[in-house]
Amino acid sequence: MSPCRLLCAAVGAGMLLTALPAFAALESGSEERRTAAADPAAPGTAEGRALALLERAAQAGRRLTWTGTQYTASWRRDAADSALVELHHDPATGPVLTGGDDGQQSAAGLTPLLDPRMLSRLAGAFALSIVGPGRCTGRDAWIVEAQRPNGQVAGRFWIDHASGLLLRREVFDDAGRRARSSAFIDLAVTESGTTSGRPAMTARTGGERPAGAAVERLRHAGWYVPDSLPGGFRLLETRLSGVVLHLAYTDGLSTLSLFAQAGGLGSAPPAGFSAEQVDGAPVWVHAATPERVVWSGGDRVWTLVSDAPDDAVRAAVAALPRDQAPDGGVRARLGRGLARLAGMLNPFG
Fold it and tell me: What is the pLDDT of residue 93?
C-alpha cells in the first residue's frame, strides 16, 4: 500500500464550526464559575487532588455504561474542522462511534476516554490544579487546568461530579489559542457506579516507558528512535510490524504517532496534500485533524499523524531526519492496512 493511500485513512472534517451553536452555550459563563478550589477539604496537595480527579475520569470512562452526542472541533492555521458524533460505551464491548465522516469505528481518543499513561506524562509536563466548579451538559463538574511552566494554560478538563466521566476538554497552543475542543451536548449514564461527590485520592497513573533494551535493539537494527521530541513529547510505545516502525509520543494532552519505513517519496503530493517546507526541507501536509505530514529523511519515509497544535507538529518534524529534496518516483510501500490504522491517533488505547 502506498503512503498516499495510507494517509487518507485518518478522520476527515465534519460540519462547519458555525453550524454548531450548542458549543457557545457550553462556553457561556465559564469564567464566572471559576473559583479557588472545588473541594478544599480533600486531603493531599492541590496538584494531587487534580490528578486524582483525572485518574477517576480515566477509570469511569471505561467502567461505566454511557451514551451521548459529542461535539468535536479543531483549529489549524486558516482552517476549522468540526463534527457531531454519537458515542456508546459498554464495559463488556468497549466504545463505539457512529456519525462523522467515517461511520462506525473505534472511539479511542474521544472525550470520555483518558489513558492513564497520558495522565502520567501530563503530570510531569504541566502544573495541574482544580480551578473551580462549572457545568457541562446540564451536569455539575469540576474544572481541572493544566498550565505550562510560564503559567500559560495548555489544557482544561470538565469532570462530572456524579459519575466521574470527562465531559469536556480543551487544548491550547503556545500562543494561547484554542487548538482542539470536544464536549458532550447530551449524555446518559445508565450504570452510574459511585455517586460520591469527592474523588478517591488514591490515583495510580501508568506511564511506563518502553524497556530500554527494546529501544536499543531497534537502534542497533538501524532505526532512529528519539527518546523525546520538542514540546515535552516523550516516547511511550514502540511497535515494529513487519518493515514498519510505529513510535508513539505524548505530552499528556496530545499524541504524535510516527511511522517509518525504508524508502523514499517522489515529488508529487497525493490528493488532499499540499507541498510545504519545514526549515527548508520539503514535506507533504494534510492540514485536517488529525494532521498528517509525510516526508523523506535518511533513506526512510516518515509519516507523522497528530492531534497536537500546529506549532508542536512543526517542531517535531523539524527535529527528525529530512532530505532536502525528494527523489523521482515513489519507492516506499507501507504494509499496514487502512483498518489497522483506524486507531493510530490514540496509540495507547
Answer: 84
